[in-house]
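Worked example 3 (structure in, sequence out).
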């Protein structure tokens, strides 16, 4: 079976499992887990921020950031394809008490001019905008990477209009590798930044939220309120440390395999996007039927609409896996 549904399906390597088994642990709620403390320090340094907080998921990192930067009744601006608007079960409304205002933009990328156009002033009838969230890479946008000048323009414009800024960097390391620009530079204009360990980096669990000491202290309190305080979680943090130390540069292999997969699909006559990173989107006549046909032949992927499939390369898919996927698509194209 070649599983191209998501880079979240990766399994920890034998070496990562050994690192996790050997992890020194303590009670993280008391701030006493040495492996978690090491991971948080590493993450903050790489993001260019003062502090960091290890959390269960990217959705939790986003919710904590939204909670830190807003009050109930506020409005959060983000792209209409952004993850918190589409895939986080309404958490921003349910727990932070805010409303999301979705904005348009090509390929999941906002233009800075959209920010002042979206602001509605101090009228008591409207929710005040307090926060801009940016997702990089953009999942629904096609795994697209924001050009650095776009990130700078977005954060500069947001701050000029009194908004805080959060970078949803669930796949931030894909953006780093694809652009050749380090995370500290890409996150420079953002007040907080989150990134996942359980996607392309291949750890089994976890994300991190980075920001100022005050922001992270408040995020820690909100994490506790949500029931997200974990105890001897250094076992998981060790996997994340291993991922940071061994699995960042190799993301280039996933990008190259995605490009090979997309090119091969186009040669077969399928309408496949040109991937910026590790996500390939394919247009088909009947996505559910194609999913079933592919799965019956040992290839799994994900439908993002009635006529669109998403295929994601990751460290558990090697060159042979890409070849198998292409051969399967070829067999179906001939039918």
């Amino acid at each position: 079976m070649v599983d191209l549904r998501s880079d979240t399906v990766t399994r920890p390597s034998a070496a990562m499992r050994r690192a996790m088994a050997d992890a020194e642990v303590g009670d993280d709620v008391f701030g006493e887990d040495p492996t978690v403390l090491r991971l948080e320090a590493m993450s903050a340094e790489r993001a260019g921020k003062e502090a960091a907080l290890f959390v269960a998921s990217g959705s939790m990192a986003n919710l904590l950031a939204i909670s830190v930067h807003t009050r109930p009744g506020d409005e959060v601006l983000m792209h209409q394809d952004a993850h918190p608007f589409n895939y986080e079960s309404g958490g921003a409304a349910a727990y932070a008490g805010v409303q999301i205002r979705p904005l348009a933009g090509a390929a999941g990328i906002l233009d800075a001019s959209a920010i002042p156009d979206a602001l509605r002033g101090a009228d008591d009838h409207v929710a005040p905008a307090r926060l801009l969230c940016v997702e990089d890479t953009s999942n629904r946008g096609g795994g697209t990477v924001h050009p650095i000048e776009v990130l700078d323009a977005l954060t500069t414009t947001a701050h000029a209009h009194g908004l805080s800024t959060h970078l949803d960097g669930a796949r931030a390391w894909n953006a780093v590798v694809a652009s050749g620009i380090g995370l500290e530079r890409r996150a420079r204009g953002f007040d907080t930044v989150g990134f996942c360990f359980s996607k392309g980096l291949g750890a089994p669990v976890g994300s991190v939220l980075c920001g100022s000491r005050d922001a992270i202290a408040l995020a820690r309190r909100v994490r506790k309120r949500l029931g997200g305080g974990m105890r001897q979680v250094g076992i998981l943090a060790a996997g994340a440390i291993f991922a940071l130390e061994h699995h960042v540069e190799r993301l280039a292999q996933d990008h190259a395999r995605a490009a090979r997969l997309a090119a091969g699909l186009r040669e077969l006559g399928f309408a496949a996007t040109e991937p910026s990173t590790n996500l390939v989107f394919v247009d088909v006549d009947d996505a559910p039927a194609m999913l079933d046909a592919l799965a019956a032949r040992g290839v799994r992927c994900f439908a993002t609409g009635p006529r669109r499939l998403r295929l994601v390369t990751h460290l558990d898919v090697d060159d042979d896996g890409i070849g198998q996927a292409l051969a399967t698509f070829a067999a179906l194209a001939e039918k």
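Notes: DSSP finds 14 helices and 13 strands in the chain. The first strand starts at residue 2 and ends at 3.
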